Amino acid sequence: MTIQHPNPDPRFPKLFAQLYPDAAQQLVLCDIGARNGFPEEWEPLKSFAAHIAFEPEAREVTRLQHQFFHQGYSGVHLYPCAIAGTSGTHVLFVTKYLESSGLCFGRKEWLDRFPFTTLDVDHVDEVFAYSLDDFLAQTPFGRLDFIKLDVEGIEHDVLVGGKNVMSGPTCLGVYTEIWWDPVIKGQPGFAEIDIFMRQNGFRFFDLELHRYPRSVLPAGRILHDDSRVGEKIFRQAVPQDFGQAFTGNALYFRDPVGELREGLLHPDWTPESLLRLCVMLDIYNYGDAAVEIVEVFGRTILKDLPLNDCLDALVPPTVDGKILSYGLYREASIELRHLINKRAYGLSDWIPLDTVYKK
Fold first, then answer.
1. Nearest residue to 286 (alpha-carbon basis) of 206, 215, 174, 195
2. Average pLDDT over residues 293-302
3. Is the pTM value of this prediction over 0.85?
């Protein structure tokens, strides 16, 4: 899954920065729940994108400012507030494990069944929060190209509070934590998030699940290895490999090609917004989806751009690390697909689409 395996060497972001050197045209990345810093996969964008982060605790704001500076990020905008479904003062439930703090708390009737106290509330504070729409209305950004959400159960509330942000190409993708079952915190579950995202024109791309063993077998599966217990040697399996899945992460992107095929293409798509989407698709290892955008819109919205350069920059390396031109890579891919279709299904009637690539 590409949530777990993003592109280790994306090349399209550099080309985008060359095509659109104006700071106003660069990507705007928004991290809501930035206590751990920006996602590692955003590092290729650290010198030519605006990075927005939110942290309501003053001590954490100072720490993050130093962290981002030493990591070489430019264009960081760190706001000492929270983001919620509505603007105003909210109760912050500060948990024993600080990274689990949030604006809603876990239900003891459920959490007592699991062997951790990370969600136990230590104390409460009051914090000010903006809704996404209210925040954006007061800033010069005008859009949030990509949003990462990790707000401990109020992800759906935050998204609903950003209806204007989420209504068109002003937002191109969302990476959000999910709480699978409402029983955990009484929060909307993944189903509600998925419905909201699809209603606002996003397509589901990927899912990562986190698993938790019950208290009756608190370490999950125990396998032989190097941690001494009595006279025997054991290894604890990674907790996420055993137990019920009830949190995780989901990834969504807009699909302008799908919009076009359904006769629903949003009128606000521009060359810049299409290529900004391609940047994030490349970051998360969906080069094929980015190539499709360039191919489909290469005769219309993107016709004045260097299409060969765009397509070449989206080709992944071969297994031995070589970088081929898009033309060569495409020919090899088509040949392999014909072979797969014939051997697996006994069919050889698939016809590849025309290309805008010029040899």
1. 206
2. 98
3. yes
